[in-house]
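=== Structure Prediction Worksheet ===
Name of assembly: unnamed complex
Input type: mixed (protein and possibly other molecules)
Chain count: three
Listed entries:
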Amino acid sequence: MTLDYILGHMNYWFFVILMMIGLYIVISYGNLVKKIVGLNIFQAAVFMLYISMGKITGGTAPIFPTDLQGKIQIDPNIVYTNPVPHVLILTAIVVGIATTSLGLALIVRIREQYDSIEEQEILDIDAATAHAENLAHGQAMGGRA
Amino acid sequence: MSAELQSVALSWQDQLPVLQIIIPFFAGPLIVLLGSRRLAWPMAFAASVAALVIAMMLLSRVIDGGFISYHMGGWAPPIGIEYRIDAANALVLVLIAAIAVVVLPFAKVSIAAEVPRRHHALFYAMFMLCFTGLMGVVITGDAFNVFVFLEISSLSTYVLVAKGASKDKRALTAAYDYLIMGTIGATFFVIGLGFLYMATGTLNMADLADRIALLGPNRTVQAGFAFIVIGMALKAAMFPLHHWLPNAYNYAPSAVTAFLAATATKAAVYVMLRFMFSVFQPEFVADSGVAAYIIGPLAVLAMFVASFIAVFQNNFKRMLAYSSIAQIGYMLLGISFFNHNGLTATMVHLFNHGITKAALFMAVGALVLRTGTTFYDRIAGMGRVMPFTGAAVVVAGLSLIGVPGTAGFISKWVLVQAAFDNGLWWMALAIMASSLLAVIYVWRVVEALYLKAPNPEAVHKEAPLMMIVPIWIMAGSTVWFGFDTSLTLGAAEMAATALLNGSSGLAEIATSAMQ
Amino acid sequence: METNTLIALAILLPILAMVGNMAFKNLPNIRDSFTLFCAGLTFASVLGILSNVGNGTSETIALFDVFPGLPIAFSVEPLGLLFAIVASGLWIVTHIYAIGYMRGNNESHHARFFASFSLAISAALGIAFSANMLTLFLFYEMLTVSTFPLVAHKGTPEAVRGAKIYLGILIGTSIALLLTGVIWTYTLAGTLDFTQGGILQGKVSGTLVPVLLALYAFGIGKAALMPFHKWLPAAMVAPTPVSALLHAVAVVKAGVFTMLKVGIYIFGIDFLAETGASEWLMWLAAFTIIMASVIAMQQDNLKKRLAYSTISQLSYITLGMALATSMGALGGGMHIAMHAMGKITLFMCAGSIYVATHKTEISQMQGLGRVMPITFGAFLIGALSIIGLPPLGGSWSKWLLMVGAADAGQQIMIAVLMLSSLLNVAYLLPIVGRGFFLKDTQNNAVSGIKESPLLVWLPPAVTAFGCLVVFFYAGQILAFLMPITGAAQ
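=== Predicted Assembly ===
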């Protein structure tokens, strides 16, 4: 593994590290808002993967210049960056924002109902409710469900 | 150029694929814009009826083995987005649209009882978006488009699940968990697509298939495959990734659960099939060993563990949720057999289990309307006071077990045949043994409904006609499709043949069928 | 009339009776006579089929394909026709008895009871006329489900527990084992049609045949082969007419009938004999015959004792198939009719005793015979037929089974059959003896016990007489069944 290899795949290293950080936050943090933040980092890593793979060394923005009559002037010597991943990621960003806002809205409602945004506290409340239900309606799964 | 020629030649019938999507898609925002609670339901219903009619017309055109390729906006694939309809997805389209049409009248009563009035218009708008998303996932022939539609349906599903919060606040945490898990699944799927795009430079499914086949063994493609399968497995609630499902199904409003259980996981299984067989070639999947060594064992585990958990529930709705996980196990097992009968079983069970679970979850909704909850001790004896609802639970329950004369029997039969085709006679016995667990959990419901004294706190009245009719349409069709299998089994076999031939094979079949 | 129409009538008339029962829910007399009318017509249809087809085989009527090349289909052949005659004929008798019993005992939910009863008969006739294993399996499950409300009829915790065992074992075995076997057969042979000489010949290698046969033998839970026999004693919580017709005739006979069908038309007698695949089944059947008789002796509850006796007698028929000789199969087929006649008499007598005295335990029955002479007389005749003494029907089938055992060279089986007869004597005759000869310690005569009502004692008297009659017609029955072994064709 040469230095060239490591530097040459820089975007992938960033992608992997960022993605893992994001996933780690989602899994390990108890605060619901922080989980959403983790999810955002996770998604941002994917956006980076897409955008960086569209990049072609020496490529320029894929905008065809037009002359005064509006005719497209195509110069075969100019290398263009692949625009499709950008377009895709534009969509994915919209999806990501929708997810984030919905998640935050849910957190607001959860806070209203549970008076907490800490996962453990919420789980404890839910477990207590389930326990009360089991007492009232007969045991499920030996009282563990 | 060719796109222009085509757009001239298009008649309204050629526009059916896009109408399929845009009718419900526009119904959603329109409901919000009008903001009228009275108009919301009729508009949603009209849109889904239109979608069902279109889906049936599409199915009738492709059931003999052809396919329809629709170019979005006249842009020819692989650059443009393609909608591609063949027997496999036309059947799923009909299933989803039919479930929507049947569930909506039920939802009118059920939602009125379970969701605050001021949310009704928004609820139906979300329902329409969810419906659009699921239809879109199934109809599209463009891989990235699958992701977009998947997220449309998922985001609206999270909202729909959270709507159960007025009855039980745990709906909110269920929706939140579902959101986290669902987003991770969808993002995995996008990562997988990214790898595929990296290796092939295209996103059209048919085009992807051709190029992957040309590439030969390729680490990037393999990584993409892994991400896609795991992402979809999360959405489909494949056994160890099923954690979001029981709570989401349990705390969502009854009508939502009925719709989701019958459609959402089915769409995910369908996408999994499409990718495994049409995009990656069957040989590629077979070489990877995913079907035999990962999906198969996990499916068997799901059949037993989830059924076992279902047996010990004290809540009808939650029991059905676990049963769904087990039944998804059957579908995945069909895939893992990797033969014609196995895929037929998957496709036919997709349909049969959809209608069975829709009937059951709607019956749950009727019970909730009269008793307030779904705990066994609260629905006790209600079968005697609500004879039609109770009988529907029995009929659909028998279908869940796979008793002959019901739809569930047909799928189980084909699945066991597939096991024997592979010489796995012990697997056949395992399938049957897991149905015994179904006997037990269905029995517990029947016992509660019929053999206990009626709960004095409940309203002792049959559910309204608006509920009974949809419930019995579904329960009746479980019996109907237990005898008349020409539609279900016919389409499923056609789909299995097409899938096993891979995507390029798909086109070849189509051309040879036309000649 | 056309045979096709008659088959449809035979299966649909009981369903019409069921609908009638639900429609005339609150008009007991109209309801019961309507059912009786339907029962009569059903029997007439079956007899019509008999006069049309004789002991030949009718054309198969295929309704529609459920799986490719696998339709819901019906046809008539001698064994099925015999089963249909027995089931539909005894339905009339039992229905009259049931009216008397249900009214005499003030049982509740008459309409539900008779509706489920009619549906069960429809399922039994469907089994009798099935042309392939898929159709048979469909009606087999229908029979299980439709008899469930009958077993749970009383609604007491005990009845519910019994019904749970009943449903659990029957559905469990049929889905886990029988269905697996059926689908396996379909994958092997590509068909499930009942065909003379079997469909598996040359399709499956020798070592797998016993495994496949085991799936069938244990999967047909209704044949009550040990260790899957527990449902039958559990089902005895049902009202006695149910035990009489369903658990002595329709349900259990459907089980052994399926067993014979599988042996004769799926495997083929010759194929079984060639491969020796059924030898283990023969030993298991022999074991069940002896064990069930021994257990029967220890039962004090009369219906439980009769239930274990049924388990033992059912294994006669399984044994007949497992011997893999044509005489054995014929004896098995004939035993379906003979045992049905005898056992239904015994059960109806048990119900008659219950109606008159509300006694269920044998130890309480001292001296009852003197006050209920007709009931105990009929019981004696039924018991002798089960034991197999001439001039009663049971003697012939037992004789044929012994001949079959001799043909197969299984002398031990002859000994088993004879030992079983002795055991039958030991557990059946003391009941009669107790009734007629023992001094009643509780002074039954004084406490005003009389013979049960006419509608309750007449039917067992009729079937007891029937036991006598079939003895003299055994030759005809044998000739009628002959074609199932392929001998006459």
